Every structure is written in structure tokens, then in C-alpha cells.
Amino acid sequence: MCRARAPADAEGDTRLQEVASMTETFQLSREQAQAYEDLFVPALFGQWAPQLVDCARVRDGQSVLDVACGTGVVARAARDLVGPGGRVVGVDLNSAMLEVAQEARPDLEWVHGDVEDLPFEDAEFDVALCQSALFFFADPGRAVAEMVRVVVPGGVVALQTYAPLAEQPAYGPFVELVAGHAGPEARVLLGTYWSQGALDGLLELASAAGLSLVESRSSLGEAVFPSAAAVADTEIKATPLAERITPETYARIVADTEELLGGYADESGLVRVPIRATLLAARKG
Ligand SMILES: C[S@@+](CC[C@H](N)C(=O)[O-])C[C@H]1O[C@@H](n2cnc3c(N)ncnc32)[C@H](O)[C@@H]1O
After folding, report:
1. Ligand 1, CB cutoff 6 Å, lining residues
2. For 190-234, what is each residue's pLDDT tens digit?
3. Which of 140, 163, 168, 178 is 20 to 30 A from 196 in CA distance terms?
4. List of domains in the chain
């Protein structure tokens, strides 16, 4: 999921699919990272950044780390709040993402690094934020522990991820539709983004890392696509499922997706697929 709006032409659709699949393996080229910033940030990721910094109570003068920052949408939102006396650093495993981030905002610090071994001192930040990435980490518990390590006692760690499929009004039925045609493995292959968003699971992660809850939110937003068919196209071609189904099965999935999601089209024809995020902010010590 989460690959959202692209230009409604063949070249745009190809760009969309390439970025969608590469995002999950971090092997983005510079062009794909730019497409992520141009297409996916406005269509999906951008909407959560103001909510995450608000949830984390980011304020003037603070030092803030954006973990798995991608092209830096959360870091940019934090910068607006910390002001000239604050500090904002983005860290990511993907160099191409960091290049795009650096080009957009050379005034912020962009650092190459792995969330499971953050290249920062203990207690270097007041706040550590992580948006739309927890489900990619091999060991989310270790990632949260690292975020806790680099914030000061009393500092805040805040996470944004996506609610489980059972709580997704459109993606839940969509994945079931695909599984109905392609078999139960579709639930696994299309399942990455929804795997870390259950609130009780996030609360357990936070508690295991010694954090106490500041606030949790369940927030309904939208992912914007050029058409309902583009949802199926983007989701399936971003996963190995694309190679495991016949062209006939694929065509049936696209046709049924148009029926399932066509009602989310707005007056201009864009399909606004509802998507539920979970946000959690918690305090160290
Ligand atoms: C879907 S993007 C989200 C980027 C950004 N937070 C946003 O909201 O636009 C996921 C990001 O996680 C990064 N990532 C995945 N695993 C990582 C790891 N172990 N350490 C650091 N970054 C990682 C990827 O490189 C990618 O930029």
C-alpha cells in the first residue's frame, strides 16, 4: 500500500510501481527517491507529519531526530516548530533518500545510518520520531530501544504506523479481494505495512523500552490514486505476487478492485482511499 498518486499516464504508472517496490528494499535510485518525494509524500506521507510532531509535543528550541527520515517530511515539520534555536537531524539507511532530503533542505542535518545502531551519542536529542517505517525494521524492539537511548531522560519517542488490516476500511477488503483470487499468500505479501500498527502492540513495545505513554491516536487519512485500477496495479506490482499470478487473475483483480474502490473517486476522478494510521508518543524515564 502507500504508493498513492502518480500521473495518470503509462510513464507515471511505471515510476509509481518502481518506487513502491524499491521502497521496501531500500534500493532506490536518485530518480526513484525524487519520485517518492514528488508523488508519495503529497499523496500519503505528508499528511501524518504535522500530526506526529504535534503528538510528540515538539516545541521551540528542541533537538529532534527523524529516524528513517526518507526525504525528510517529518524533519521539515519539526524544523517549523523548533525554530532557529533548535536542531533537526534526519537519519536513514538509503543514500538516495538523503540526497533528495539534503537538496530540499540543506539547512538541516542528514545522516546515513541504521535505526538498529544509531550513529548518535546517548541523550543527544529531546525527541526521536519515526514515521511509516517501523514495519520495515528487522527488530522493531531494538529500533525503539535505540530511539530511547538517544533521547534525554524525560525526552519523547513518537511513532507513526498503519493500523492492522482488520481496522482498514478499504485496504482490508482490498487485500481479501486479492487473496480471494490469488490465494492466502497474498495476505502475507501485501501485509508489510499493516504489521506493526496495532495499538496494544505499540504500547507493549513502548513499555518494554521503559517508556510511559504520553498520547496515542488513531487517525483516518487518505491515499490518493489516479484511479481504482491504479491501486491494484501499484499494490500488486510492488510485491512478488506480480510474478506468481497469471495475467487472467491479475485482470480479474483489477476489475474487482474498480468495483470495490470506484466509489472513493472524487469529482476529478482521483480515488481517495481511506487509510487509518496509529500514532503513539511516549516519554523516557
Ligand atoms: C516509507 S519510507 C518513510 C520515510 C519517511 N519517514 C516518510 O514518512 O516519508 C521508509 C524509510 O525507512 C527507511 N529505512 C528502512 N529500514 C531502515 C533502517 N534499518 N534504518 C534506517 N532507515 C531505514 C527507508 O530507507 C525509507 O526511507
Report:
1. 23, 26, 41, 45, 68-70, 73-74, 92-94, 97, 114-116, 131-133, 136-137
2. 998 999 999 999 999 999 999 999 999 999 999 999 999 999 988
3. 178
4. 10-163+195-222+276-284 (3.40.50.150)
